[in-house]
Design a protein that fits this description.
Elements (H helix, E strand, L loop, with lengths): L1 H20 L17 E6 L2 E12 L2 H4 E4 L6 E3 H4 L1 H10 L7 E10 L4 E4 L14 H7 L9 E3 L5 H4 L14 E5 H7 L2 H6 L5 H16 L3 E4 L3 E4 L2 E5 L8 E7 L2 E5 L7 H4 L6 E2 L5 H18 L2 E3 L8 E6 L4 E5 L19 H4 L2 H9 L4 H19 L17 H17 L1
Parallel strand pairs: 6-7, 7-8, 8-9, 13-15
Antiparallel strand pairs: 1-2, 2-5, 3-4, 3-14, 5-6, 10-11, 11-12, 12-13, 15-16, 16-17
Helix pairs in contact: 13-14, 13-15, 14-15
The protein binds zinc ion (2 copies).
């Protein structure tokens, strides 16, 4: 009897406890199957930039990427003409085709105006994409607050979001695009002359822009133009006739939004000659890419890229015969946000360390200077040979890659012996 009472007591207590908790801790929590909102913010001078994800989609690398055939003026599909190069580069990035293509857009809050650069695909790419409006709301804004939309070009994945299902999404916005792109993509004669796979792009531009044209809120511009104080349109033709970069400057800080310069980062940074079937003029697109890679690596400008993995913010580093993408570090500011300017001592990423180190060792306060040099190299080393936390081991070289230790030691030893 006693025994039965004890069991009843335990059951009762357990029952009470269970009810008190409201859930059974050992039960499986449902998997969520989605990401948190695609919103990433930085501060650029007095501007606040919010990168908005429109979604990602499997990029048809094999069907779209092209490359010049050596000794000819023609191009062929990369995966047919040089499958080894494609496989090797993708393997180096630990990827297999199809790669996942991000579609990013950039919202600039100048403090006075809300300006959206590109709008994603809207309903034109299917359910993968068209999440810009959801993410805009998650970022704290309503579509009717957007004052201006500057389009980089009129391909579906950039213009489609201004009018999903052909209905105006931004009721108070003026939409601007280059005259060259408007003249091309809104012209039936060009559509008839274009290959069939491009017809959807013409239609996408037409139906997306229609409500804004009817409302008298579609405006074009030509050449390099300041569209708003601190936001400058720069012609970058090739991908499309009026393909445009936007250079955003505030209080001396700069962001270059370069749009469709890169579709597959793992392939086109190492080999800028890789183009796409969607380039209106592939040779010119390649030329534009080479030019902007070179300029961006020299100036160390912060780049905003529409099709580099979200949030598509980073820097371009020059290698011996190619380029590399250095994504910005993720950070979550607790109070005021400051842009993580260029990574420390990025010159080490461009030149072989040995050529730069003597200069660094010659700083006035040798001890402190050399500590700083080590710190800088350690951080650069983290980027060249990523291993988490290496840059913390500044004093000991622990975990340093041989590429970084050797040149540093050699350069500083020879420098000291000359003193
Ligand atoms: Zn495009
Ligand atoms: Zn695009």
């Amino acid at each position: 009897m006693k025994h039965a009472f004890a069991i009843a007591l335990v059951v009762a207590l357990f029952g009470v406890q269970s009810a008190g908790n409201g859930h059974d801790a050992s039960a499986a929590a449902p998997q969520q199957g989605t990401q948190a909102a695609g919103v990433y913010r930085i501060r650029l001078g007095s501007f606040e930039i919010t990168v908005l994800s429109d979604g990602t989609h499997p990029f048809p690398d094999a069907a779209i990427l092209t490359k010049p055939i050596p000794g000819t003026a023609t191009r062929a599909l990369l995966f047919r003409s040089d499958p080894n190069e494609a496989d090797t580069l993708l393997k180096e990035a630990d990827l297999t085709p199809p790669t996942e293509g991000s579609i990013n857009a950039f919202l600039i809050n100048t403090g006075h105006r809300l300006i959206l650069i590109d709008s994603g695909a809207g309903t034109l790419y299917g359910s993968c994409c068209g999440h810009l409006l959801t993410n805009l709301k998650a970022a704290g804004y309503r579509p009717d607050q957007i004052d201006e939309i500057f389009l980089t070009h009129l391909h579906e994945d950039h213009v489609g979001g201004i009018a999903p299902k052909g209905r105006m999404a931004f009721p108070n916005a003026v939409v601007r695009a280059s005259l060259a792109d408007a003249n091309y993509w809104l012209n039936a004669r060009h559509e008839r002359a274009a290959p069939a796979f491009l017809h959807a792009q013409f239609e996408g531009a037409r139906i997306s822009l229609r409500p804004y044209i009817q409302a008298g809120r579609f405006k074009t511009f030509s050449g390099a133009t300041e569209l708003y104080p601190g936001i400058r349109a720069l012609p970058a033709p090739g991908h499309t006739p009026g393909h445009t970069f936007y250079e955003v400057t505030s209080n001396g800080k700069k962001l270059l939004i370069w749009c469709d310069v890169v579709h597959v980062a793992a392939l086109q940074f190492p080999d800028p000659s890789i183009t796409t079937e969607y380039d209106t003029n592939p040779a010119q697109a390649e030329q534009t890419r080479r030019r902007v890679f070179e300029e961006a690596s020299r100036s160390e400008v912060l780049v905003g890229a529409m099709h580099v993995s979200f949030p598509g913010l980073g820097h371009v580093a020059k290698r011996a015969k190619s380029y590399a993408w250095i994504p910005v570090e993720y950070f979550r500011p607790s109070f005021a946000m400051n842009v993580r300017r260029r990574p420390p001592n990025r010159s080490l990423l461009r030149d072989p360390p040995a050529t730069r180190l003597p200069v660094l060792c010659e700083q006035r306060k040798p001890r402190r200077a050399q500590f700083q040099v080590r710190l800088n190299i350690a951080r650069s080393c983290d980027r060249l040979h990523p291993v988490a936390g290496r840059s913390r081991h500044v004093r000991s070289y622990e975990g340093w890659h041989a590429d970084c230790i050797g040149p540093f030691r050699k350069a500083c030893t020879s420098l000291r012996s000359r003193r």
